[in-house]
Design a protein that fits this description.
By secondary structure, the protein is α/β, with parallel strands linked by helices. It is 38% helix and 18% strand. The protein has 14 helices and 13 strands. The radius of gyration is 22 Å and the shape is elongated.
Length: 382
């Protein structure tokens, strides 16, 4: 029997393997069973950490670096990229304003800032890019994008005319905004990879839903929500339109609202942007099997997330899809309705989560080998 043509399109197993390592491990397992297989490794990301590397690798682009400020204002080197078309730049806020940049003891959304994300966007615009894709997953901030706007040249002033300090809490004293955007940002179209629909404020807003994972207590959540309400009042008066209820405005601590307000950005499904950028529809049409995967499949995997998007795109092309995952939780079965053919979990014996994460690459490779051998049995029966 001829060896199948396989497209391997996973995302990261968070906390253990990035998407590149996951794709490589699956590839090794497939080649052990099918040495002659035509394997196309296509690591993917959903707008969070790893998006730049995944898109640059998939399109034959170039990784670049810029000196920016981290969430607490310290200088760091952050990656961004130019895609293979030479005109699209990709930026991930996690590289400049993300939780992984802080120790757990440093997490405080009252003072963390998105200024570094603004600096990355400026760097991409200065490169001459016609289009900039901004991934906004994994933020450590809750400042509505005020720090980003400061990097563009805006000033956020209190009633006495003084500049407010960085961070979300200070926005409670916002009186007016001055300035205009950097002229380098006029030309490029800005697209935001955003897979959440939360509004800016309230029980489903930026502070209430995402603040706790960034270090906010219930009291701090209430403080930040009130500060963002003041921010929304002043911003909407400044730009002449409402942004607070736009689906996705509450993403990344309100950065979604800031991107709408200060860059007139377009919020799109992160999965949609990524699959378009890597020409997924074209690549899947040339294969017999798609293997996707993520660290854990659950009810969220089937609601606009990357695993669902890969599954649906492959199903539309008439190509079967198998997922490899580190674990599962209630609701993962809904992926079958999206077209998933089978799910293989990586643990092959009882083990702790820590052990599974420490051995992730070996377990992923073994799971891929099991998938291939099971398919071989089916092919013989057929």
């Amino acid at each position: 029997m001829p060896a199948p043509r396989v497209l391997i399109a996973p995302q990261a197993f968070k906390g253990s393997c990035d998407a590149v390592a996951v794709a490589a491990a699956i590839g090794r397992g497939i080649r052990r069973a099918w040495p002659e297989a035509a394997v196309d490794e296509l690591p993917l990301a959903d707008g969070g950490e790893g998006t730049v590397r995944a898109l640059v690798r998939a399109t034959g682009g170039v990784i670049r670096r810029a000196r920016v400020r981290d969430p607490l204002g310290r200088e760091i080197d952050a990656e961004w990229g130019t895609l293979g078309d030479g005109t699209t730049a990709v930026v991930e806020m996690a590289a400049a304003s993300g939780l992984p940049l802080l120790l757990e003891s440093e997490r405080d959304p009252r003072i963390t800032s998105t200024r570094g994300t603004g600096q990355l966007i400026l760097e991409a615009a200065a490169s001459g890019a016609h289009r900039i894709v901004v991934g906004i997953g994994g933020s450590a901030t809750n400042d509505g994008g005020a720090g980003m706007a400061r990097a563009f040249g805006y000033r956020f002033l209190d009633a006495a005319g003084g500049d407010l300090p960085e961070g979300g809490a200070a926005l409670a004293r916002l009186h007016r905004i001055e300035g205009q955007t950097d002229p380098r940002l006029v030309r490029p179209a800005i697209e935001v990879a955003c897979d959440v629909t939360n509004p800016l404020l309230g029980a489903r807003g930026a502070s209430a839903v995402y603040g706790p994972q960034k270090g906010a207590t219930p009291e701090v959540v209430a403080e930040l929500d009130a500060a963002l309400a003041r921010f929304a009042d002043v911003v909407e008066l400044f730009i002449g339109r409402r942004v607070r209820e736009v689906p996705g405005a509450g993403a990344a601590g309100g950065l979604g609202a800031g991107l709408l307000a200060f860059l007139d950005a377009r919020l799109r499904s992160g999965a949609e942007i990524v699959l378009d950028a890597v020409r997924f529809a074209e690549r899947v049409s040339a294969v017999d099997l798609v293997i996707t995967g993520e660290g854990r499949v659950d009810s969220q995997s089937a609601y606009g997330k990357l695993t669902q998007a890969v599954t649906e795109a492959a199903t539309r092309a008439g190509v079967p899809v198998i997922a490899i995952a580190g674990g599962s939780a209630q609701g993962y079965e809904s992926l079958y309705a999206a077209g998933l053919g089978a799910l293989e979990l990586t643990p092959d014996r009882p083990m702790t989560l820590g052990d599974a994460m420490a051995q992730a690459e070996d377990l992923i490779e073994s799971a891929a080998l099991r998938v291939a051998r099971t398919i071989d049995v089916g092919r013989r029966l057929a």
